[in-house]
């Protein structure tokens, strides 16, 4: 339908998009922009998710830390983290650091919350059995609590990976000198619709590939768990 | 003491902020004093123009969300109850799930214009996914025994849908709503920051360009309040409508 309908010039047919995209793959420009984007989203994703998992596990395990820290997290959870970008730009400069940190901040929340509830949902009977068999606290954490929280942490990694791409794209549209968001914005402003769609397809492919990678890691690492997704 | 612990962290954070603001080590631009931010906050609520900006953002978020709720729940339940529909739509939704829909925004601007419509359309698209996926999951996992009993007692298809499927799916639908509401806020603010002449996202960028960090942070607080209130509204509606099931601990 899309292919056949008569289209205004800002809507390219799928075939045209595909040819433009294949042609762009031959030039180095698209790789540079994609590389710049990944250089922001991946460190942000790794930092945010690691901190989220570590603090979430800590809050789920240690009650005093839970009381101290969790309310602040849940209170700020519904706030769109991207609004902090302007102030991050003042604090950390307009370069990559502020973007990486804002992506990390956005990725922190879903992972923290899932790690927290993953720990809390550990079946007490498993913990009791482990204690009964003389397991130490460290052993219980590593052999019982961690495996039972892992599926939820992985579920949140999928969410935070998607989030890291959204925030990266938004940050680049607002302020950047390279990257796929920047490419889209520039193409839009100069009415280069072919480039706009190339950037769009590139970001879609990256997002899809990242999601597949997380799911693959999930299947590999948590082989004992039946996947419903 | 134990009950006070949650406030300790928040108060300590505020104290550190205020000390940083007063120390004079950094410019006022970096750490505006909490007093200034509070002043701006009061000004915000007293100025009809700024309240109007909040209203603009709110109706964009709610408009897109409401559309996504109506269409998403219908689609998700259809997918859950009909294998054919699921076979057609499931690959589409799970395949495009991880793709940042925000990338479509420039296209939307050309299709729907730079006004509210392009933003509402993007909010709709981003909210559709969690709502469809959750209601699909809910409608698919209706307890078979309940369905069989209803059929056994001679319930018609529409009665089964109304009395068994919808109530059984409702908790999942609301779980989807709770994911979608913050998403709606995120998308509205981002789109307004990227391209707009009104709304709270625009106000953030505008205050930032005029180097009024205190005003900007006041707007951030307003956005936070709005997100928080919307989230609480969903919980309230949920507890009213699904009185038979207590809120699962998920997302408190």
Q: Can you describe this structure in just a few lines?
A:
The complex is a heterodimer of chains A (229) and B (252). Chain A is an all-alpha fold and 229 residues long.
CATH architecture tag of chain A: Orthogonal Bundle
CATH fold call of chain A: MetI-like fold
Question: Could you tell me how far the N terminus lies from the C terminus of chain B, measured between alpha carbons in angstroms?
Answer: 23 Å
Strand content of chain B: under 5%
DSSP strand content of chain A: under 5%
Helix content of chain B: over 70%
What's the structural domain tally of chain A?
1
Q: Decide which structural class fits the backbone of chain B.
A: mainly alpha
Distance between the termini of chain A: 30 Å
| Radius of gyration based on Cα positions of chain B | 22 Å
- Count up the helices of chain A: 9
User: How many E-type strands of chain B?
Assistant: 0
The CATH first-level class of the largest domain in chain B comes to Mainly Alpha
Relative helix content of chain A: over 70%
The largest sheet of chain B, given as strand count, sense and whether it forms a barrel, is:
none
In CATH, the architecture of the largest domain in chain B is Orthogonal Bundle
Tell me the overall shape of chain A: elongated
Number of domains of chain B: 2
CATH fold category name of the largest domain in chain B: MetI-like fold
**Name given to the CATH homologous superfamily of the largest domain in chain B:** MetI-like
Uncertain segments of chain A are none
């Amino acid at each position: 339908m899309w292919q056949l309908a008569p289209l205004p010039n800002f809507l390219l047919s799928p075939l045209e998009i595909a040819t433009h995209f294949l042609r762009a793959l031959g030039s180095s420009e698209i790789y540079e922009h994609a590389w710049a984007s990944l250089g922001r989203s991946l460190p942000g994703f790794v930092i945010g998710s690691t901190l989220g998992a570590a603090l979430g596990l800590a809050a789920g395990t240690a009650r005093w830390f839970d009381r101290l820290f969790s309310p602040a997290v849940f209170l700020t959870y519904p706030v769109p983290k991207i609004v902090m970008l302007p102030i991050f730009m003042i604090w950390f400069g307009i370069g990559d650091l502020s973007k990486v940190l804002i992506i990390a901040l956005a990725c922190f929340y879903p992972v923290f919350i899932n790690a927290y509830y993953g720990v809390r949902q550990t079946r007490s009977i498993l913990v009791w059995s482990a204690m009964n068999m003389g397991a130490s606290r460290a052993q219980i954490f590593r052999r019982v609590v961690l495996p039972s929280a892992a599926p939820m942490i992985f579920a949140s990694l999928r969410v935070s990976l998607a989030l890291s791409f959204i925030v990266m794209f938004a940050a680049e549209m607002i302020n950047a000198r390279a990257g796929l968001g920047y490419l889209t914005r520039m193409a839009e402003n100069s009415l280069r619709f072919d480039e706009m769609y190339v950037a769009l397809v590139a970001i879609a492919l990256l997002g899809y590939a990242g999601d597949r990678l997380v799911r693959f890691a999930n299947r590999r690492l948590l082989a004992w768990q039946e996947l419903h997704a | 003491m134990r009950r006070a612990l949650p406030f300790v962290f928040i108060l300590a954070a505020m104290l550190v902020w205020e000390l940083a603001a007063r120390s004079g080590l950094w410019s006022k631009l970096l750490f505006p004093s909490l007093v200034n931010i509070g002043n701006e906050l009061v000004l915000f609520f007293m100025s009809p123009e700024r309240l109007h900006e909040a209203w603009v953002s709110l109706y964009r978020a709610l408009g897109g969300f409401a559309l996504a709720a109506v269409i998403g729940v219908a689609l998700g339940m259809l997918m859950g109850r009909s294998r054919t529909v699921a076979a057609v739509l499931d690959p589409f939704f799970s395949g495009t799930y991880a793709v940042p829909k925000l990338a479509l925004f420039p296209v939307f601007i050309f299709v729907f214009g730079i006004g509210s419509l392009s933003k509402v359309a993007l909010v709709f698209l981003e909210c559709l996914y969690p709502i469809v996926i959750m209601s699909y999951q809910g409608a698919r996992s209706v307890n078979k025994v309940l369905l069989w009993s209803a059929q056994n007692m001679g319930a018609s298809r529409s009665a089964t849908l109304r009395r068994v499927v919808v109530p059984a799916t409702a908790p999942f639908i609301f779980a989807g709503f709770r994911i979608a509401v913050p998403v709606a806020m995120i998308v509205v603010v981002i789109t307004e920051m990227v391209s707009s002449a009104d709304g709270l996202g625009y106000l953030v960028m505008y205050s930032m360009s005029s180097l009024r960090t205190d005003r900007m942070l006041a707007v951030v607080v307003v956005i936070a309040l709005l997100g928080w209130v919307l989230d609480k509204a969903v919980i309230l509606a949920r507890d009213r409508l699904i009185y038979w099931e207590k809120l699962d601990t998920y997302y408190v």
